[in-house]
Design brief:
three-stranded antiparallel beta sheet; 6 strands; disordered C terminus; about 5% strand; disordered N terminus
Amino acid sequence: MNGSKEGIQSPLSFHEPSTTAWIEYTSPDGRAYYYNRNTKTTTWEKPDELKTPQERDSVWREYSKDGRPYWYNTVTKKSTWTRPDVFKSQSTTIVQPHANTNISRDTSRPPRATSSRSKSPTRNQQSLRQNESRGSRSRPSESSAALVDDHQLPRREYRTAEEAENAFIDMLKRYKVCGDWSWEKMLRAVVNDPDYRALKTLPERKSAFNRYISTAQETEREQREHEKRKQRQDFFAMMDTLPVSEYTRFRKIKHLAKDHAAFCAVPTEKERVQLFEAYMDEHIKQLNDERRKLRSNFVQEAVEELGVLPVSARWKDVKERLMEKFGDRLMPILQLGLSVLDFMDVYDQIIADAEKRDLSQRKHEKDLLFRQQRLNREKFQQLLKEHSDQFTPSSTWSEFYPQIKHDPRYLAMLGQPGSTPLDLFWDAIELLSDEFYNERKRLELLMHDNKFSMQVDTSLDSVREFAQKHSAIPESHLGYIYQQLIIKAKRRKEEEEERRLRHRRRLLDDFKYQLYDLEPPLHSDTQWESEHARISALPEFKDIDDEKACREVFDMVMERVRERAQVKARKRRDSEPRKRSRSPVAAVTIAAEDTADKRTRRQSDASNYSSELEEGEMV
């Protein structure tokens, strides 16, 4: 925008050409807007009636953002912050209204601006109406002073923007602008000063003013704080000269210091009370610190007097000793000095220290004992290692004990808690047994890979020669390993013999059952020689391949056949008397005989059945 709008803030500045109804105003943010008195409308766009001929013919349009003007080309659709040449030559005249100018007041609210980019500045229009209503007065108002055209007042030129800003700040200082001043108040005071126009644009002036106000407020705040600190120091110094105790109240100080300069320098009663309370807090804290320090010194003297006490020291004896030394210092608890409670605290502290020392000593002794017991176990384990070449997995404590019963390392183990010498011995034997077992397994694997057959009659020299050739088993271990291999070979041979015998018994049982199933069956008078041809043709006979064993089975079967024939004959003979006799006496006699015969037969059958099973199992 042109220079005529700078420094003008609604409603302090406006254009009022006599031939147009449009009036130009500046919003608080520095943007120009226009008001039509006839149509009661506002707009951000500059009306054609106010434009210069160059502006009417130009394709550029002027706008403002945050108080900073920019220009928009309606043809190229581009905007720029640089003022086009067509606007550099234009000049607008600001007309200051006379005091007797009659401006009609429109009580209706001005409508919104016709521009779609922003809302209408209603406040500025209202201010305008207020200024118009006041325009009929004989004397212009204070705000009317701002309506003077910048070009009609003298302006100082400065070479740089920094010099111009410094001149503007110096001007504010000359007028003693404070941190609580507003922009309007400052403007009324300095608008006619030439240095007010040292900065050419309104945003620059407002920015400098805001920085000055911030600095002034900070300076005033620091000054107030300095004054408060000075008042606090003087007030505290005054309090030091007065007779003050920890129970003193403010009304007493107010009576004593009512004419004192430091007391009167504090402006309000509330601040005086606050300073008094702050001083009393520090004073009481200082008194308490002194009392604690003095009491601590007394307690330290009592501790030094008692020195180191045993854990068994009694309070009665300690109290008498302290009373003899510090009895003259005993005073009530709330006053300076010592009390019996302090003596009790000293006693508790010393006894607690004695208990800690005693506990620490016991722990130290326990650790030493535990360490010594561990060393004794390690020495005994070393003793076992020295005799390890004499051990085998089958060694016993009774064999080893006579060799070590007088050794100091064994005697040192007696009576101490934890593992006993016997426990350590069996632990060593268990580890040795695992070692022998692993060595035997490795040797057996090597024998299997090299097709070395271990039999019952294999000699120790053969095993030793094989072990030396294929493994690194110690010579001292070979004897026990050889014995284990022989035991294992014997067990294997016994198992093979047992399997062979079971197989032979199964073949004999099959042959026996086949004799029972012969067709025609065997009779009680059958002889081996007469049935030899038929029996020798049986597959079971051929599988046994032992005629003597088969003859024994045949004899057992024939004995069983004869027993069965006798049982059948007895039953047949016993049934005939019951058919011939029908008398009661004869019937009773026959029944008794039958009962006795049945009992005898049951016993005979049981014995024969048991004998048969036993014989069958033993074959």
